[in-house]
Design goal:
CATH class of one domain: Mainly Alpha
CATH topology of one domain: DNA polymerase, domain 1
Largest sheet: 2 strands, antiparallel
Radius of gyration: 37 Å
Distance between the termini: 96 Å
Number of helices: 5
Strand order of the largest sheet: 1-2
CATH superfamily of one domain: Photosystem II 12 kDa extrinsic protein
CATH architecture of one domain: Orthogonal Bundle
Structural class: mainly alpha
Shape: rod-shaped
Length: 169
């Protein structure tokens, strides 16, 4: 067998060299015929920023904020004062259907600070402080009717604020 290789090694080497050169030429020809593929990315549609946005959760000032055209998610969230323990990796955005009803923001009578209580209809600085004083002396409100025990609170004020308050502990 070794005498066969010694006799024909030049022919075998030539055949391998020709095969290698033919393969390279074939690949070069095929690659030259490939056309580049153009990929275009569609721009995401611009949404007209208008209206109001509710910000709640782990923020210092939950509430409804006006939405301006140049607002970004960062500026909107920062305007509400993000808490130190807020998880900004999970932000929930809810877009209601047109004509759908928007639930009013509820103010927790057992936890709200004076500035938030003053946002309720018919509640000024004096009544807000009276609510806080009553809460500090008597504990949490168990029913909205407990407000009647505070001087200056009657049926008309309770009627105005009943849809805007909650009593969660």
């Amino acid at each position: 067998m070794s005498s066969f290789l010694e006799k024909y090694w030049l022919i075998i080497a030539a055949v391998l060299a020709v095969s290698l050169i033919t393969g390279i030429v074939f690949l070069a020809f095929r690659l030259s015929q490939l056309q580049p593929v153009e990929i275009t990315l569609r721009d995401s549609p611009e949404y007209a920023a208008r209206g109001e946005i509710y910000i709640g959760g782990a923020v210092a000032r939950p509430g409804i904020y006006p939405l301006k055209g140049d607002d970004t998610l960062s500026t909107i969230v920062e305007s509400a004062g993000v808490s130190d323990n807020a998880d900004l990796s999970k932000i929930k955005i809810h877009i209601p259907l047109k004509g759908g009803s928007i639930q009013p923001q509820k103010v927790n009578l057992n936890r709200a600070e004076a500035w938030l209580l003053q946002a309720l209809p018919g509640i000024g600085e004096g009544k807000a402080m009276a609510i806080i004083d009553y809460r500090n002396k008597n504990g949490p409100f168990r029913n909205i009717d407990d407000l009647r025990k505070i001087e200056g609170f009657g049926n008309s004020i309770l009627e105005k604020i009943k849809d805007f308050v909650s009593l969660e502990d």
